[in-house]
Amino acid sequence: MKVLVAVKRVIDYNVKVRVKPDNTGVDLANVKMAMNPFCEIAVEEAVRLKEKGVATEIVVVSIGPKASQEQIRTALALGADRGIHIETDEEVQSLEAAKLLKAVVEKEEPKLVILGKQSIDSDNNQTGQMLAALTGMGQGTFASEVVVDGEKVNVTREVDGGLMTVALNLPAVVTTDLRLNEPRYASLPNIMKAKKKPLETVSSADLGVEIAPRLSTLKVEAPAARQAGIKVADVAELVDKLKNEAKVI
Amino acid sequence: MSILVIAEHDNSSLKQATLNVVAAAKAIGGDIDVLVAGENVGAVAEAAAKAEGVSKVLVADNAAYGHFLAENLSELVAEVGKGYSHILTSAGTTGKDFMPRVAALLDVAQVSDIIRVESEDTFVRPIYAGNAIATVKASDSIKVVTVRPTGFDPVAAEGGSASVEQLDVVKDAGLSSFVGEEKAASDRPDLASAGIVISGGRGMQNGENFKMLEQVADLMGAAVGASRAAVDAGFVPNDMQVGQTGKIVAPQLYVAVGISGAIQHLAGMSDSKVIVAINKDEEAPIFQVADYGLVADLFEAVPQLEEELKKVL
Fold this sequence. Notes:
The complex is a heterodimer.
Chain A: E1 2-7, E2 9-11, E3 33-35, H1 37-51, E4 57-64, H2 69-78, E5 82-87, H3 94-108, E6 112-116, H4 127-135, E7 138-149, E8 152-159, E9 162-169, E10 172-176, H5 188-194, E11 199-203, E12 215-221, E13 230-232, H6 235-245
Parallel strand pairs in A: 1-4, 1-6, 4-5, 5-11, 6-10, 7-10
Antiparallel strand pairs in A: 2-3, 7-8, 8-9
Helix pairs in contact in A: 2-5, 3-4
Chain B: E1 2-6, H1 16-28, E2 31-38, H2 42-50, E3 56-61, H3 70-81, E4 86-90, H4 93-105, E5 110-114, E6 116-119, E7 122-127, E8 132-138, E9 143-147, E10 163-166, E11 176-183, E12 196-200, H5 210-220, E13 223-226, H6 228-232, E14 253-257, H7 263-269, E15 274-279, E16 292-295, H8 298-312
Parallel strand pairs in B: 1-2, 1-4, 2-3, 3-10, 4-9, 5-9, 12-13, 12-14, 14-15, 15-16
Antiparallel strand pairs in B: 6-7, 7-8
């Protein structure tokens, strides 16, 4: 079966985020960019499905500027078979991303679409669910285990207070949570091989989707800094402060 | 304006987060209706009708909604919600699951995880794991919004007298089915709404040592949490994780034990009223946000804490 994986280029998760002085956004100039960590888990899951003989082809898709091809190449080096780059320099919000991915789903007809549960820049946690709604598919969000069983997939989900397992008809959408797997690193020979794998570039117009953001960001500010308090000498002083000064116990 | 709040509950009781969401709805202003969708939810609907500020409770009681499957719930909410100016729910794992589906079915954007209401169409939300705070304006005619409960003080659970109306809308998309669940059995308060939280990090060394924290938690009526490092190391399950990718908490008292204070963790707890850090590394970043810091070996400090608390509680 064919698996489609969507990946996003975001600020590297180790980079300290700085808000621009004019409060228009976050400073991304000369900042290291990388594949969104949840998307890495999505690629890894697809590769494991292929290694198990469940998946036969892995198509990786990314939406964004030309540089997003780096993240597609990374996915190809990890084991994806071919890439689709939906090139745009505009800001693409979740609903438009879902519409663009829907167009790819209609063309590629994958049995399973795997996405990260959220990107670590906008923290929206929307695209997978929106794609599932638009394509009329079932969804297994925040997955910690994915088992394909004939025409169904069982997805164990990380929910408040524990785990929940659902069975979905295929085709279906899965979004990954942290504990689904531990992504591998690409080997040098595979990075070289990835350069020769096919990568097709399309525009949003090719896919018949108009990019028209519904949300506008009025300002972006740094969070209010919390002041450091005092150091206490021992546990007795701590309990005394909590009881008599902070009055929280 | 008219606002539809989708209640968060477990079919038997209303989750406190719903009261926080109603508070967010009050900040927007307008009539507030609450939709209770589930199976055998009579008690939940009664509780919702008593919440302060609620005009009407709509009840969709059917097996199709019993496990809150997003495919079924989203069709119901999109149909019931299309007559409202705003649809709100809590940004718990249920709300995060079905709400974007509602937005897509209505062809509108969603504003996720708001912590403040500026006006009827403008909301404040954290981005980049709380390292930046964005003010966002929504232009769609229906605003679909998830609310971070800790951003709003809950409305009173008692005192209201909303009418209760049964809906005869059954949506079964036929795409998904419930297989099973594993709920962590605990008598302790729910992590997301507890007044006191005590969390352990990598410094705990193993899962067995979390028993020390549990004993202290039981003395104080606290919930027990963990850092992502402790979860990744396999000490405790993921549903205990406090942080950007786990639970967002803002209790009266947060006690961080053996937690260095990675930015990812701080994003989940820095709105707590009082923060205590116990760590043997005095350079640990957690001390930069702690009101009270104790530089000590946790394996000595935590048993002492238990003894001292026994004296005063």
